[in-house]
Description:
The structure holds 2 protein chains of 2 kinds. Chain A is an alpha/beta fold. Chain A has one domain (18-223): Rossmann fold, CATH 3.40.50. In chain A, 35% of the residues lie in helices and 23% in strands. Chain A contains 8 helices and 8 strands. Chain A has a 7-stranded parallel sheet, sandwiched between helices. The radius of gyration of chain A is 19 Å and the shape is globular. By secondary structure, chain B is an alpha+beta fold. Chain B has a domain at 5-68 and 102-113: hypothetical protein PF0899 fold (2-Layer Sandwich). Chain B has helices spanning 5-20, 42-53, and strands spanning 26-34, 62-67, 70-73, 80-83, 98-100, 105-116. The interface between A and B is large, with 40 and 40 residues. Strand 1 (4-15) of chain A pairs antiparallel with strand 6 (105-116) of chain B, so a sheet runs across the interface.
Amino acid sequence: MSEQIRTVRLPVMRRVLEANDDIAAATRVELARRHIFAIDLMGAPGSGKTALLEATLRALAGRRRAAVLVGDLATRRDGDRLARYCDRVVQISTGEGCHLEAAQVRDALAQLDLDGVDILFIENVGNLICPVGFDLGQAAKVGLFSLTEGDDKAAKHPYFVTAADLLLLNKIDLAPHLSFDRAGFETDVRLLNPSVPILDISATTGEGFDSWLAWLDNSAAAAST
Amino acid sequence: MLRVHEFSIAEGLAAQVLANAPAGAHVRDVEIRIGALRGLEPEALLMCWDSVTFGTPLAGATLQIDQRPWSIRCSQCGREWTSPVPFVSCQCGNATPVPSGGDELDLVAISIDEEET
């Protein structure tokens, strides 16, 4: 009696990141139940994510109750900076990880008192590529570009642009000193994502913050109903 | 070394393959499909796959990557074609045809060895 080996192909057709997506979906349900509007804030290192959150938390004080999760490779510096403006901050040290994953957000949320919180900011690891494909359970992805990065960053990071529900263009106060092609930047964005709002802001001078805060207020109000 | 996201994806893939293979089966091939938006480096993913599966029952399983191209549509002449990169000019002279790509990241199929007696 001889044994033969034959190869059998089994169709599967399931998402590779299904386990992450399932955790994110559970987080999304829980945040919606608590009427919390959650933002995944993504941007390059040095684009001003933490500075944006510092200025935003200052502006929201007394109007909205915020909580912050901040992902970083190694240090606690961002968490310490934000704790000056918010009493509900959890630093997630990703070690060698280049992006946050849904399980890290779920575990960090378990350390937070979410009672009364309206808005949850999740500051992702500084990176324009890796974080985009990992659902965290957020209600909106906000992409932060800045003038100092150069006007080609939208074109070079298509997934970042298509995945964003809002794009912020930071450091707009530096425009007189830089040769950033604002119209060309917007052309690239529009080819990839025709409808995403783009807000020019400065976390340093507060320029454009009226529009950014109005977007936050409208989103938080919609989540609270 | 910084963990590239291809490593996380390889880990998720290995778990998904094991969850969908019959217990104890020898997995020979793993077929995945990646949308253009994902921007994944096939070579990085292959390296991570080898690393993640090393010393496990999936060691030696071949990863077959079907990387989907960008769909390009020229809004001036109406021509449609596919491209490995999103920003390209049309032969009609239009410098800004519209790129679109999928973000799928799917385990399509696995092939296992079955013994016949």
